[in-house]
Specification:
Rossmann fold; five-stranded parallel β-sheet; 10 strands
Length: 488
């Protein structure tokens, strides 16, 4: 597929000089309209052979575009902060907000590319990694990211000339990756072609750029970028559609309906077992094996089901230096300007630490679904996106425990009233809680679908009967201890 791109693509200086003003105007106009409308963000991946002028091309984009809304992120081998987290974490951390543009050197393709060239992975593993990347890029596109990927190509003889020029300049800022030196030219080209064939999709296309002529190269990138932004601006935005209500008169049983809400524990039994479980958890979190892993705890459930109380019993025996509780509310403007998983990726703990989420990424398929904040297509695709996200977490070594705390509608009403009548608990009850209660059946259906579609073998749901708070707290502590012991 690279054959036509290997042909010389010439542009004389006069032609480029005549074209450049029009190109700059088109590119800057499209960029500034994207900045104003804030309908999507832009990510530009620059990849390909060393010596092909990737840095020069990016420098010219900085000349042509408004640099105030342009960021260049360069990634080499992960440093300590990134090594302590899943591989995709650093890319999620740096996602641009809507209206902004990020240029990416050393993207999520680099490790797979390097490993395949050096035969550290076989075709099966390489294809598996490409499939993961396709799902990742599809999610970015669905979440409002215009993703454009440029592969810079040079014939071997031209690359040799460029590399000699760079060596003669002895420019310290030019770092040549060993996998793309001349001796690996053929293999790098073959693997690059395979990557493009596997991962060039309508929502995340690859553009192969012949780089023998620098003016042609830069004009091709600038024109492609301007046209792509303009097309995206003309696409428009779809409107959110509310989830369908439960059909009146027809029974709709879900997974949460099967929870035995009569389960209870006496106060004396509770105190004794709670102390044992808390000590067990403390001992487990203090081991060398746990320091190599880490843990993610997710708490979801009916309003007033006791998530906060259960969390307090979990953290009581733990060293405060190793955990952090994240109460999740409506996303901020900064968070709404990025894909919905961004705010959770950036909260991922380092190895040996614990992140506790009081509500989580599952709000996409609960509140956002029921209240119509997410379109039908958006919350429906979220099930697979969440499963992929949790697969990344468990593959990295995190222990992932997810709890659904369930109570009856009658018990919820009793707790709501008790909160209103108790001064120090009044802050726990809001108008939103009462409004959500009116949609009890819709939330029950959404919760049942969530559990059915996201309870995987690597991150299963634990359904907790929370009508009796003591029983719920012991169930949570016991489950966490068992999951950690299984993983160590």
């Amino acid at each position: 597929m690279f054959d036509s791109a290997k042909l010389p693509q010439d542009m004389d200086k006069k032609s480029f000089h005549d074209l450049e003003p029009q190109l700059r105007e088109a590119l800057l106009s499209a960029q500034l309209e994207a900045v104003e409308k804030k309908a999507f963000s832009i990510m530009i991946l620059v990849d390909g052979l060393d010596g092909a002028g990737k840095g020069e091309a990016v420098a010219r984009l900085y000349d042509w575009m408004d640099a105030r809304h342009l960021t260049c992120n360069a990634y080499g081998d992960p440093m300590d902060e990134a090594r302590m987290r899943p591989p995709l974490w650093r890319y999620w951390r740096d996602l641009p907000a809507k209206g902004e543009t990020a240029i990416v050197f050393g993207s999520w393709y680099q490790q797979a590319l390097r490993d395949r060239i050096y035969d550290k992975i076989d075709d099966a593993e390489f294809n598996h990694q490409m499939a993961r990347i396709r799902r990742f890029e599809e999610m970015l596109a669905n979440e409002g990211v215009l993703l454009l990927k440029f592969w810079f190509l040079l014939p071997k003889e031209d690359q040799e000339k460029r590399l000699k020029q760079i060596k003669k300049k002895n420019a310290a800022r030019h770092v040549l990756a060993d996998w793309a030196t001349l001796k690996n030219h053929a293999k790098a080209t073959d693997v690059g072609e395979q990557i493009i064939l596997e991962t060039s999709k309508g929502h995340a296309p690859w553009f192969v750029i012949p780089s023998q002529n620098s003016d042609y190269r830069d004009a091709a990138i600038g024109q492609t970028l301007a046209d792509s932004i303009r097309l995206k601006l003309e696409d428009g935005q779809h409107q959110a559609v509310s989830a369908p209500a439960v059909v009146s008169g027809l029974p709709h049983r879900t997974a949460v309906d099967a929870i035995d809400l009569t389960a209870s524990v006496s106060k004396s039994d509770y105190e004794e077992e709670r102390e044992k479980l808390q000590q067990r958890l403390s001992d487990l979190s203090d081991t060398k094996d746990f320091a190599k892993k880490g843990m993610i705890l997710v708490f979801q459930g009916n309003d007033a089901a006791g998530k906060g109380g259960a969390i307090r019993r979990v953290i009581r025996p733990l060293d405060p230096r190793i955990y952090r509780v994240h109460p999740i509310s409506a996303p901020s403007d900064e968070e709404k300007a990025r894909p919905y998983l961004w705010r959770f990726w950036r909260r991922m703990p380092a190895r040996g630490h614990i992140a506790i989420f009081d509500r989580s990424w599952y709000e996409r398929v609960l509140v956002e679904r029921v209240e119509g904040y997410a379109s039908h297509d958006d919350w429906l695709r979220a099930y697979n996106e969440i499963n992929d996200f949790e697969a990344e977490l468990t593959k990295f070594g995190y222990v992932v425990c997810k709890f659904w705390l369930a109570i009856s509608a009658e018990e919820q009403l009793r707790r709501f009233k008790a909160r209103e009548e108790t001064v120090y608990k009044q802050h726990k009850i809001t108008d939103d809680d009462w409004r959500n209660r009116l949609k009890w059946d819709d939330y029950a259906v959404a919760a049942g679908d969530m559990i059915d579609r996201t309870s995987t073998h690597y991150a299963p749901w634990t359904l907790v009967s929370a009508e009796n708070k003591r029983h719920a707290r012991l169930t949570v502590l016991r489950t966490i201890c068992e999951k950690v012991e299984e993983a160590l």
